[in-house]
Amino acid sequence: MHSGAVRRPAIIGRVSDANIAAGVPIAQNTSGGRPGGTGGATGLNLSYKTQKTVLLVGFLLVPLLLLTTFSLYPAAFLFYLSLTDWEGIGWEMGFVGLDNYREIFTRPDIFGVFRNNAYYFVGGIIQITIALYLAVILNNRLLKGRYVFRMLIFLPYVLHSVATVIMFRNFYHTEYGALNLLLEAVGLDALKRAWLGDPVLVDFSLAFISMWKYTGLNMVIFLGALQSIPNDLYEAATIDGANGWQKFRFITLPGIYGVVELMLILTLTGALEVFDIPYIMMLGANDTETFVLKTVQMAFQYRKAGLASAMAVVLLCIVILVIWLQRRLLYRGEKREWTV
């Protein structure tokens, strides 16, 4: 190129010299963004704030619709049904106000069944203790075969509830049950009982099934929490002369406090909502009814869907209240940062 040549500025896209000479206008970028943007092609010239709002609404609209359709609307309709005498068939119903709630709290055979739920709560506390103990032991890297023990303890949780209950029905059988046969084999005939026929023992027997089934799940959750604690803390504590109990008290327990709090909430709510084990095993016989089982019977056996709806609302309020109280009593609120 000689010194007298004039350099034309570079134009985005290829434009021929013939078009320039003919006076054909060059397309300009009107998208308001980078060259090559699609804003000019679509005719939309949205500000950043508008685009952000559209994206937020677009991403939140579907979850909100699903939440409203499958949670909020059914809950509101359930509360409406609790104020009626609906029988569960057709749409004929009369407004009764708070009569259903008054009946719940004044009839001992309805509200009094919560005492059976207490057996499962006590069993859940024992279950959490055993699961934490097993998790601490099986978290030891020097223990041989720890993965096999983890699998065996977790296996009951994988089994279906129906299969578990059928197995324990044979286990508790008075004549040919494995438990009574074992007691007879070791010379403890005096301890043989009708485990499902004795009103004093039946709730303990059913609560033990729940303990056996869910201990493995709690153990796995505790294992995950224990493995998040830095091993350097235990090494430093060993150098300082701390024993096993001191390590558990001052390192392990504070490190998994949030998980323990979660497990207590799940145990309490699970005890309030237990249904499958007493229903499959006893069908509520021998005074083993829980509140959820009583609710199902009220709706489908006695055709009192309005009263059953009120019982469901009461259970929901009790669960929310219990969780709130437990959070108020146990929640510390500090953010833990590990230091060595």
Write a structural description.
With 340 residues, the protein is an all-alpha fold. The protein has a domain at 115-283: MetI-like fold (Orthogonal Bundle). The chain has helices spanning 17-22, 39-42, 48-81, 99-106, 108-111, 114-138, 146-158, 161-171, 178-185, 202-226, 231-239, 244-255, 257-272, 276-282, 291-300, 305-330. Helix 13 packs antiparallel against helix 16 (305-330). It is flat. The protein starts with 16 loop residues before the first helix and ends in a 10-residue tail after the last helix.
Keywords:
MetI-like fold, 340 residues, mainly alpha, disordered N terminus
Note the topology.
Layout: H1 17-22, H2 39-42, H3 48-81, H4 99-106, H5 108-111, H6 114-138, H7 146-158, H8 161-171, H9 178-185, H10 202-226, H11 231-239, H12 244-255, H13 257-272, H14 276-282, H15 291-300, H16 305-330
The protein's oligomeric status is single chain
The average pLDDT is 83
Total helix count? 16
Described by strand count, sense and barrel closure, the largest sheet is: none
Order of helices and strands: HHHHHHHHHHHHHHHH
How much strand? under 5%
Question: CATH fold name of the domain at 115-283, please?
Answer: MetI-like fold
Structural class of the secondary elements?
mainly alpha
Q: What is the CATH architecture descriptor of the domain at 115-283?
A: Orthogonal Bundle
Question: How many angstroms separate the termini?
Answer: 70 Å
State the helical fraction: 55-70%
Rounded radius of gyration (Å): 33 Å
Q: Could you name the ranges where pLDDT drops below 50 across 5 or more consecutive residues?
A: 1-15, 18-22, 26-42
Morphology call = flat
Number of strands: 0
CATH superfamily of the domain at 115-283: MetI-like
The CATH class name of the domain at 115-283 reads: Mainly Alpha
